[in-house]
Amino acid sequence: MAPTIHRLALLGFGPVGRSFSEILSEKYQQVEARYGLRLQIVAAVDRTGGAVDEAGLDPAALVAAKRAGGLCQYPVRGRDGLTGTECLSVTEVDTVLEATSVNMQDGEPGMSYVKQALSAGRNVVMANKGPLVLAYRDVSELAKSNGVSLKFSATLGGSMPTYNLGVRDLAGCTIERVEAVLNSTSHYILCRMNLGDTYEEALAEAQRIEIAERDPTLDVEGWDATNKMVILANSVLNTPTTLADVSRTGITHLSEADLPMTMLATAEKTNSGYRLAVAPVRLPEDHPLATLDPLSMSAIFYTDLIGPMMITVNERGPRPTAAAMLRDVIEIAGGSV
Question: What is the rounded CA–CA span in Å between residue 135 and residue 120?
Answer without folding.
Answer: 18
